Amino acid sequence: MEQQKLKELIAxxxxxxxxxxxxxxxxxxxxxxxxxxxxxxxxxDGPHGLRKQDDKADHLGVxxxxxxxxxxxxxxxxxSFNRELVEQMGETLxxxxxxxxxxxxxxxxxxxKRSPLCGRNFEYYSEDPFLSSEIAGAFVHGVQSKNxxxxxxxxxxxxxxxxxxxxxxxxDERTMREIYLASFEGMVRKEKPWTIMNSYNRLNGTYLCxxxxxxxxxxxxxxxxxxYVMTDWGAMNDRVTALKAxxxxxxxxxxxxxDAQIAAAVQDGTLEEEVLDRACERILNIVYRFEDNRDKExxxxxxxxxxxARTVEEECIVLLKNEDSILPLSGNMKAAFIGKYAETPRYQxxxxxxxxxxKVESALEAARGLEESAGIEVSYAKGFDDIKDETDEALLxxxxxxxxxxxxAVIFAGLPDNFExxxxxxxxxxxxxxxxxLIEAVTEVQPNVIVVLHNGAPVEMPWLSKVKAVVxxxxxxxxxxxxVVNILYGRTNPSGRLAETFPVRLNDTPCYLTYGGEHxxxxxxxxVFVGYRYYTSKDMPVLxxxxxxxxxxxxxxxxxxxDKKEIKESEKLCVSVDVTNTGKxxxxxxxxxxxxxxxxxxxxxxxxxxxxxxIALNPGETKTVRFELDARAYTYxxxxxxxxxxxxxxxxxQIGKSASEIVLKENVKVESGTVIPKEYNMNSTMGEIxxxxxxxxxxxxxxxxxxxGMVPDTMxxxxxxxxxxxxxxxxxxxxxxxxxxxxxxxxIQKETLEQLIAALNS
Length: 762
Description:
The longest helix has 19 residues, at about 275-290. Helix 5 (about 130-145) runs parallel beside helix 7 (about 180-190) and helix 12 crosses helix 17 (about 480-490). The chain is an alpha/beta fold. It is built from 24 helices and 25 strands. The chain is globular. Mean pLDDT is about 95; it is low at about 710-715. Helix content is about 30%, strand content about 20%. Belongs to the glycosyl hydrolase 3 family. Pfam families: Fn3-like (PF14310), Glyco_hydro_3 (PF00933), Glyco_hydro_3_C (PF01915). Keywords: Hydrolase.
């Protein structure tokens, strides 16, 4: 509907109708206004499937939603490193929404994985904001291409489930901009999501639904967001304050309570009716964007979409270990499938994203479907039950016997439903003891052990050195079994790469000492050093690094070329690199470009991901991968100017197979286009002034006039007794504030220093 017509429609609404439009009609519908023909719109949970509820709807999944297709969760899809694949998944979900009359899919979930403990990490994409923003952007683009809205969430800094409705995420401006806002920024600027969902938590003391800086100043005015902001379900604190801040829609229904508060505030003059009108216009603009573009012919193709879910998962699976090239398994090997998840896979997380899958494909079912056609022989033993973390000795004995009588044992393990879910955080990174014991017992009787993991976040692997292979399937959706079997038997070459670091132990994580917080405050003391930014900067060993993943073929990199050796900040830098498949089978490689600031005066990570691409290569084939970098590739957030800033200096363009394995690098010199104004005073140091070319010239001239040289002889000479050496004097001079010249330079007056400071600041 045209904007003018929307305004005319709003002008016909009563105050009460306008106030009512700003909260839900029930759990899943916006309010309509029947007398004016304004329709109600339905939203539905996602983001990896359609969780549409109608009768007796609820938020936590107690009541069933419609039969639908569960795609891989965010932890998996980000590991695909494949924008096109995620966009296609979004298109499929958009078509499903059209078929079911759902106007907005509530996703993607894109908070940063600050700690492996966050209970909702299975929904989130990455510890890296660039990867998160790019994958989210592809998802949003795909869904909205079908004229269905998205609601990226949870904006922002929702990085723990513990006290998520009251906790305050405490962080400085630089950390916020470089990590937590950056996860959303690129997606919002490029893809313009129809809606945004704000988070439950507070940010530096202010609830996100009431945070004008986030919702209006940054999201709308700086990034150009033009949709409406809705609350997470039950996240509203103060309705009128939130409306002023830019939170338009409260979900779910307030049963008229907050509607009355809005109307009363307009009537008593504490809320301008113009603010309310603007919120109504934003909401109705999206309602009609869907209504005016309904696809009445859309059909929900369950079986087709199940096959698409398998295709997506195959590119998400990460091969973490493959000793002696045990994988892929040959068809004539007798394999023992061991573990409950071989028969009943854990393929999704708990909470608001839970999908009522119309069917679930297990690895055991998929393998037995191939037994006759591919000559595969598979036995099965349950091995454990994950209802309680207790070893069932009979199940363990059966599993060991199966393993003994096979050529290889494939153990399907991971995290049970009650180990990770929305609403609470994990307490540790361990898998259940009964599963670890099972793996250890099988390795004692079978040398060829492969572990397939079903989990939404990193786990410790005390048995890693004793197994031949590890396959990270994550929470791979309802077709995970078929996808895993295709990987195990080489029908598909694994190409996933970790979108998060697997640390050796929880104690190694950047926020280990502060995660969870105290007194409803969680201090982000690690700053920008999240995930691999921390581990690589400390050169700390990890179990598996960010960006890591193996293939059944091999790739070699060569011919890294930068089109310029020196550039100005405003110029683009074109980077190209050749990648060759040097193995014997076709495969896909993820090419990762990192940037390292070599001359920085700022505390920065040793490297940061700035570009990536996924390419398919046949054996012997070479492709040239090209990237274009702009100024953002070199920037950090400067808290003095409150903006992005490029330091002049040398930057290393690094091509890596992971954040810890850099294979090629070239240097580029970047000249900043911004001069940060300096303001000197009596406490400014000599070293600080001398580092500034202008300051150095003025200071040397002033000192020369006073003493005939830069430094008086009495300060420069060794005292002969070794008490003050040259190095000590240089260090003292570097850190000496101007005011100390009154003590060390004979004849200098305070007025002289004040004149010097005035000249420096002119």
